[in-house]
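Protein Entry — a single chain follows
Next Lines — sequence and tokenised fold
***
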Amino acid sequence: MSKDLGVDYDYLYTIKHDLKTVRREFKSCSSHQEDMHDEYGSYFVSSAMDEFTSNWNDHRKELLKNIEGVGKLVEQSIENFEKLDKELAESNKRKKK
């Protein structure tokens, strides 16, 4: 039983675009923790928020690296599927001659 492979290019390009958007947001978000110290009113709250922010920055860097990796995989998938489509189309044209 033969199954045809279908590739939804629109979906792949949407994923590529969305990953770029997420990557841009992750890169541009920065900590405004220092601006908020007076707002917390408590050393303990301020200290906890500092720890959270520091933790978030470390994890954000790791997430950003993963997002970039997935983005590269999606781009490579698009390139490979388009190349395969072209090769199969050319092969099919030769067979029909």
Observations:
- The mean pLDDT is 85.
- The chain has three helices and no strands.
- The longest helix spans residues 43-96.
